[in-house]
């Protein structure tokens, strides 16, 4: 049992390292930077010259993803096929592609007209964008103020800029959800904070159940307790 738990922790650590390394290349490319063979990103010959791994390289960049993963994966984890890991990474990295809600939501402005601090701009629709689907003018406004973009006028930047997209997700989580789960209110409180009446209080029980299932599985893989109050 101890060996199994240790292997799970080891595997999750490896996943994290690989995701960080590969996502760094993707984000750097989005910002017009080159990444050297040593893992550092920037501009100039040191980064874009010989050994450049991604971005606007002076020479054609070689795809060293397999070598990179093989380097960070210990040989004792022989049960993990490289192709399987790459598949999981691809699924996880899909989160890095700025996204928007389903087309039906485009019909909604997600505008709280009562909010005078961050008033809606005519013609703008504050529907969900980004990995955590930032919505409503009262979220876009302060997020833009803290991160450094015009959240009321140029809100589409969340759907076209990878870095800002992820910053909005982290901003929302830290300002809305983090304290809920760390204070003992439980995972269910984070569902309510993000999806509220759309899913909680009988709004969409199957969706809530799926989120709880994912959360439970991740807790199992990490070897930690789920805690109380997992539903909303």
UniProtKB/TrEMBL annotation:
One of its GO terms (biological process) is carbohydrate metabolic process. CDD domains: chitinase_GH19, ChtBD1. Disulfide bonds join 34-48, 111-120, 200-232. The chain crosses the membrane at residues 12-30. GO terms for molecular function: chitin binding; chitinase activity. It is found in: Vacuole. InterPro entries: Chitin-bd_1, Endochitinase-like_sf, Glyco_hydro_19, Glyco_hydro_19_cat, Lysozyme-like_dom_sf. Residues 30-59 form the Chitin-binding type-1 domain. GO terms for cellular component: vacuole. PANTHER family: CHITINASE-RELATED, ENDOCHITINASE EP3-LIKE. Defense against chitin-containing fungal pathogens. This is Chitin-binding type-1 domain-containing protein. It comes from Anisodus tanguticus.
């Amino acid at each position: 049992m101890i060996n199994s738990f240790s292997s799970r922790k080891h595997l999750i650590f490896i996943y994290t390292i690989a995701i960080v390394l590969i996502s760094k290349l993707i984000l750097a490319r989005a910002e017009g930077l080159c990444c050297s063979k040593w893992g550092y990103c920037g501009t100039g010959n040191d980064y874009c010259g010989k050994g450049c791994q991604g971005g606007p390289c002076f020479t054609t960049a070689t795809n060293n993803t397999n070598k990179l993963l093989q380097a960070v994966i210990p040989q004792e984890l022989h049960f993990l096929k490289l192709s399987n890991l790459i598949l999981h990474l691809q699924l996880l990295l899909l989160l890095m592609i700025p996204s928007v809600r389903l087309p039906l939501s485009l019909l909604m402005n997600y505008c709280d007209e009562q909010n005078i601090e961050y008033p809606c701009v005519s013609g703008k629709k504050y529907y969900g964008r980004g990995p955590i689907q930032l919505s409503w003018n009262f979220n876009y406004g302060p997020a833009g103020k803290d991160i450094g973009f015009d959240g009321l006028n140029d809100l589409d930047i969340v759907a076209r800029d990878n870095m800002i997209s992820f910053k909005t997700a982290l901003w929302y989580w830290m300002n809305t959800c983090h304290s809920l789960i760390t204070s003992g209110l439980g995972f269910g409180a984070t569902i309510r904070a993000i999806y509220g009446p759309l899913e909680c209080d009988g709004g969409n029980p199957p969706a809530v159940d799926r989120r709880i299932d994912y959360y439970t599985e991740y807790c199992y893989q990490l070897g930690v307790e789920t805690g109380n109050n997992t539903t909303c």
